[in-house]
Amino acid sequence: MVNFNMETMRRLGQKLKPSARARKIWWWIFFSLSVLNGLCAITAGYAGIVNPYATAVPAMLALTFPLWIITTVVLFVVEICVSWRMALVPLLTLIICLGPILSNSPVNMVNPKVTDGNRGRTFTLLSFNIAQAYDMRDSVQHGKVEGDGRAPCNPSLTYLIGSGADIVCLQEFPKYINPMSWLRITQEQIDSLNRIYPHHTATWAESIFSKYPLYPIPFNHKEQEYEPYTAAMVDIQGHKTLLVSVHLKSFGLSDEDKAIYENVTEGEGRSSLKAARRALLPKLKTTFREHASQAREIRRLIDSLDIENVIVTGDFNDVPDCYAIRTIAGDDFSNSFNVAGRGPIITFHKNRFYFHIDHTLYRGNMEAIAFRRDDIEYSDHYPIITTFQWRHTALTDREKLPVIDLIGRDSTAGPIGPLPR
């Protein structure tokens, strides 16, 4: 009986064993999938070298780069169990994409620490898209009153006041601010901000708060139009530094667009994909091209002022190594996340758009020694904080700061003022 069973199983195994022709077909199927996946991963990883005005497809593909890397790793694990020759394709893909992988997930195991010896040469910069100071945890924003179970004060402002940052760059923060009950903004919070950060400048899209003296840089944007950046010259511990707070164009997705995207992420079928293609792709194309124009404008500003120490930070509305970041960074800027960060992060978390779109670039006589993202969910963005250290102590050059002509510009340098009547 045992012999009979063993023989039966052997014959059954021979019947179930795929033929040479079937094995060859499956080999080519996996090989083709690996090549296609590799091409998509490489295109997504290096999309930033392609001008969106030529084609915006790579920029759109760049948003999915982490997914392509995950599928590449899965293919490598599966294929190495089947054929090591086949596994060479995903392995080569990972090698080619090593640069973009490290930009999205750097490996910095040991960073310099702030000690008594270098504390006088370090400063912290916080960048945060504050979403108009709304509390995103609340289902209703407009018309809210106190006593709904939340903290009596605005949580985002409370966070800023207790952050300990030396410089704060805010996007989507009101140029003028009053106590507002429905946002739980109190006069005490406004007074605290003014006391901690006596130097302040703002446009309708960005605000800069500083413990150090600053001199706003005028530009030609018309009042109340969308402004992709605001800039100031800041005297940071005797180092003349150009600080640019950016908020590149948002994708402008409506609630209906976001619902379509959520349907796609839930795998609701071909109709959702068609709807997404019709509704989302044209807006993405327009936005990426606008990013390119805004990035060139920011880079022209930096080059025209010819300042050694420059920091560009804020909401880029795009992922690491995108065309806009490459345009601003050129060959002389570093990314604080790449230098001092660790592992993959997301900085936007609403409507299932999980992307790393907030960045800090810098050049000059400084280096990033620490980077972190704070996990607070008051806004649709997370704040990012970089600690910088000057490479050497500078004599104060406050007297050398250029005189900025503010005639004809409504600067809010100084304490936060009330809303105009």
Task: Outline the secondary-structure elements.
Elements: H1 2-16, H2 20-45, H3 57-62, H4 65-82, H5 88-96, H6 98-104, E1 122-129, H7 155-161, E2 167-171, H8 187-196, E3 199-202, E4 206-210, E5 214-217, E6 229-236, E7 239-247, H9 255-265, H10 270-279, H11 281-305, E8 309-315, H12 323-329, E9 334-335, H13 336-340, E10 358-363, E11 366-373, E12 384-390
Parallel strand pairs: 1-2, 7-8
Antiparallel strand pairs: 1-12, 2-4, 3-4, 5-6, 6-7, 8-10, 9-10, 11-12
Helix pairs in contact: 2-4, 2-5, 4-5, 7-8, 9-10, 11-12
Describe this entry's structure for a reader:
With 421 residues, the protein is α+β, with helices and mostly antiparallel strands. The chain folds into two domains: 2-104, no CATH class; 119-254 and 283-400, Endonuclease/exonuclease/phosphatase (Deoxyribonuclease I, Chain A, 4-Layer Sandwich), CATH 3.60.10.10. The protein is 37% helix and 17% strand. The protein is built from 13 helices and twelve strands. The strands form two sheets. It has a six-stranded mixed β-sheet. Helix 2 (20-45) packs parallel to helix 5 (88-96) and helix 9 runs antiparallel to helix 10. The termini are far apart. The model is unreliable at 140-147 and 404-421 (pLDDT under 50).
